[in-house]
Structure formats: C-alpha cells, structure tokens
Amino acid sequence: MIDTEAIREHIRGILVALGDDPDREGLKETPDRVARMYEEVFEGMNYTNHEIAQMFNKTFNEDAGSAENSDDMVIVRDIDIFSYCEHHLALMYDMKVTVAYLPKGKVIGLSKIARIADMVGKRLQLQERIGSDIAEILKEILETDDVAVIIEGTHSCMTARGIKKNQATTKTYNLSGRFKDNVCLNMRLQ
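RE: above sequence
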C-alpha cells in the first residue's frame, strides 16, 4: 500500500532541498496535497495484473467470433489515460490507447477495457509496459492470445526538459496471437 505519511515527509524534504520554506503560506499544505494526489494517481501500484484482471472480469458468452479462424474483431479506440514515467517521475500525457481482440466465445464489457487501461496507467510505468500489461490482463480475462494494444502519447521528460521537443509523440504496439502474423488484421487496426 502507498505510504502517504512517508510521501508527506519526503515532499517536505524536497521543498527544503529546493531552497524553499515548506512552512510558508503557499507550501504549508503541499506535502499533504501531494500525498493525496500520489495515492490517487498511483492507485494501480496496489494491484498486480492478475488482481486487476479479477477486478474487471465482466464477460459475456457470445457465439459471434467463436469459430477458431474468425476475423470478427472488437476494437475500442482513443481511450484517454495518463501515467508517470519511472525514469523521471515525469507525466506521460495525451495518451490514446487502442485495444483490439478477436473474441473466442467471450466478450468483455467495453467500459472494463477503459478501466483496465486507466488502472494500468496508474503506476510508475514505461509506455511499452502499459501496452504489455493491458494485453496480459485481457488475455487472462478473455482466454485468448489474439489481443493488440496500440498506444500513442507524449512524454514530458522529452517535451518539458532535456531535449524539449514538444511535438514529439511515441507510438507503441503490443501485438500477440494472430495479430502478430496477419497483415489483414493489422491493417484493420489503423
């Protein structure tokens, strides 16, 4: 679990290390505000992928797509999420997640896909790992390897510091099962 008391203490120390007075009017409540914010934005760190799969395992039996070689596809596009990069604790923002899968007798409630993406983002992350975590969770729930996750996002570690390229975006693909080999399926993702 997230130790909010330790966060408060450390944020106070950071303010001192930055040369500011943590007891001045504008900063008095900052350690507490940051601790509460971290508890919210890093909620996903409290759960494993398996626990997230259990939380959002709401599926429906469906005959459509149950044929072994069916190309029936479910795609949910433009799921907005944000996360924090584990290298700089910098915000990854304007992230759009696209998830696709080939149903094999089950479909998942669409809002659950968005909830999974959101919860996975609420960890110290790499964009590549967000995609693989979402895919792993969906594979467990749907009992299929035919899952694709595409993410496009902006990283403040590139836009607000360092190289400062504010137009740069990063796109990652996590393709598994038939999405790895089937060009026609991949074209339908675009």
